[in-house]
């Protein structure tokens, strides 16, 4: 409906109608085939010659529908737009009626019969005409989708949260007796304590939490993004001990093995900089740089 010169490509996947999940009406077809036919029908109603193609992609949902040419001349655009409006109104009313269980799934083809009758009962302010709003309450996505996976947060803010949470875990280590300390004299590196995400959140200030809540996944996403420092398992936050990290079992090509032996370090080691005991690994074993002189 955007313009007569519009062309479209659609790859149907999830089974949805204009206002909710798509309801099956033909048991002789698979759900996927029936839905493809419905999406194609929408194209036909909108006045397109709808073509079908199968994409070369690794997916079971790979049938695409394409509309490049119109079935009517530009002079009939206003008339076709009224037909499209009526089609949308009918399907919306059909969805409401079916949801209210006043009418079952006794539909034929697309919404005709009961839906045609229901469409005529729409209030005057609900009936749309050509040139007015396409659908009340419709809100398209913004042209530029906002990134909300904590990746766009300022580096200073992220570093501050990481340092606060790490200090919280390190200081939460339970006090040990002398006998415990003697038995663990071979392991002096402080691994800290594990805390639940809820306990960690309770120690952060309100401004920080408010900022994180606007991101998808919030605090958990930020901690998982900082894989070098933290490990989040079953809702609990741990400081990562790189001594326990298992080397990859995958056999790498000879060229990559040669490169890995030279250890291309592009980031500084957080533990070397901030942990009271330094890094748990020697410089030659750590995947991160122990000082700027190791950066490449």
Automatic annotation (TrEMBL):
InterPro entries for this protein: tRNA_uracil_MeTrfase (IPR011671), Znf_CCCH (IPR000571)
Keyword annotations: Cytoplasm, Metal-binding, Methyltransferase, S-adenosyl-L-methionine, Transferase, tRNA processing, Zinc, Zinc-finger
Domain C3H1-type residues, every copy: 263-293
Reaction catalyzed: uridine(44) in tRNA(Ser) + S-adenosyl-L-methionine = 2'-O-methyluridine(44) in tRNA(Ser) + S-adenosyl-L-homocysteine + H(+)
Protein EC: 2.1.1.211
Record-level GO cellular component terms: cytoplasm
Location(s), subcellular: Cytoplasm
Function, in words: Adenosyl-L-methionine (AdoMet)-dependent tRNA (uracil-O(2)-)-methyltransferase.
Protein family per UniProt: Belongs to the TRM44 family.
Name recorded for this polypeptide: tRNA (uracil-O(2)-)-methyltransferase
Organism: Scytalopus superciliaris
Gene: Trmt44
């Amino acid at each position: 409906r955007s313009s007569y010169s519009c062309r479209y490509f659609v790859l149907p996947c999830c089974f949805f109608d204009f206002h909710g999940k798509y309801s099956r009406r033909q048991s002789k077809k698979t759900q996927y085939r029936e839905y493809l036919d419905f999406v194609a029908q929408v194209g036909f109603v909108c006045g397109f010659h709808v073509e079908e193609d199968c994409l070369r992609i690794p997916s079971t949902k790979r049938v695409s529908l394409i509309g490049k040419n119109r079935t009517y001349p530009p002079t009939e655009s206003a008339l076709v737009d009224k037909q499209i409006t009526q089609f949308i109104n009918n399907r919306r009313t059909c969805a409401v009626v079916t949801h209210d269980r006043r009418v079952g799934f006794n539909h034929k083809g697309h919404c005709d019969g009961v839906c045609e009758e229901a469409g005529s009962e729409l209030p005057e302010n609900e009936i749309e005409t050509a040139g007015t709003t396409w659908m009340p309450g419709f809100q398209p996505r913004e042209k530029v989708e906002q990134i909300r996976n904590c990746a766009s947060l300022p580096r200073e803010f992220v570093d501050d949260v990481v340092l606060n949470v790490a200090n919280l875990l390190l200081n939460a280590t339970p006090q040990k007796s002398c006998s415990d300390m003697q038995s663990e004299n071979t392991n002096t590196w402080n691994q800290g304590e594990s805390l639940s995400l809820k306990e960690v959140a309770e120690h952060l200030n309100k401004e920080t939490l408010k900022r994180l809540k606007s991101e998808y996944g919030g605090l958990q996403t930020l901690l998982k993004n900082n894989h070098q420092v933290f490990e989040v398992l079953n809702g609990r936050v741990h400081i990562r001990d790189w001594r326990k990290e298992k080397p990859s079992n995958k056999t790498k090509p000879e060229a990559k093995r040669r490169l890995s032996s030279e250890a291309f370090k592009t980031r500084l080691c957080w533990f070397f900089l901030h942990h009271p005991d330094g890094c748990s690994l020697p410089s030659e074993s750590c995947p991160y740089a122990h000082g700027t002189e190791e950066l490449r």
